[in-house]
Amino acid sequence: MGKHPSLPILITGGGRRIGLALAWHFLNQQQPVIVSYRTRYPAIALLEKAGAVCIQADFSTDERVLSFAEEVKAQTDGLRAILHNASAWRPETPDTPLCDVLSSMLQIHVNTPYLLNHALESLLVGRGHAASDIIHFTDYVVERGSDKHIAYAASKAALDNMTRSFARKLAPDVKVNAIAPSLILFNEGDDAAYREQALDKSLMKTAPGEKEVIDVVDYLLTSGFVTGRSFAVDGGRHLR
């Protein structure tokens, strides 16, 4: 897990789905974890019982993002990694002002990681060559665009670009990479027709579950060389 296994891994949006799976993955390895959550799902109490530090965070304004960064600094003097998993998926709809959609997507996917990377840089650098990591979770739509989620796709594309900029800025102490998933797992309410349609969009025709993403995260944390790259986890969707 790298040269400083006792330092915590910060996971934003760790209360559900992939973020929650990552939190449990590291806890099961006795790796300290700090998790941000917006809504206190029952899973948060279980994470706390297992030893995770869970911090309620509202990333809707820059001031609240920076306040969260100060709370993280109060918990630790160093970080093994930051996994920027917090996300929202808002489409353009007739009943929502377009400026609201765009600003909210940019806030969570661009402003938040941008500010946290800067604010928490001192917790990552100075610990040795390739000793720390930042991983941005982007999306398959960065490559293809999306006619129904234009602001979302644009914000994730900005985050993808920021991956390369921070890799340049923070090397060689910190490796900065991105993971760009497509469909990884369904929501409980997704009906059979939707599931069939969604699965047909990839060559592999399956929703593989969180382990596919966890395996890529483990690879990136273990590597002492890879930085400034985006790793697609899309089941060959780009070839459809």
Number of helices: 8
Distance between the termini: 36 Å
Order of strands across the main sheet: 3-2-1-4-5-6-7
Rg over CA atoms: 17 Å
The main pleated sheet reads as: 7 strands, parallel
Poorly predicted tracts of residues? none
Q: What is the ordering of alpha helices and beta strands?
A: EHEHEHEHEHHEHHE
Helix-and-strand structural type: alpha/beta
- Helicity range of the residues? 40-55%
* Number of DSSP-assigned strands: 7
Shape: globular
In terms of DSSP E residues, the strand content is: 5-15%
Q: What is the average of the pLDDT values?
A: 90
What do you see in this structure?
The mean pLDDT is 90. It is globular and about 45 Å long. It has helices at 17-27, 42-49, 62-75, 98-119, 141-144, 150-170, 192-199, 211-222; strands at 9-11, 33-37, 53-56, 81-84, 132-137, 174-181, 230-233. The N and C termini lie far apart (36 Å). It has a seven-stranded parallel sheet, sandwiched between helices. With 240 residues, the protein is an alpha/beta fold. It is built from eight helices and seven strands.
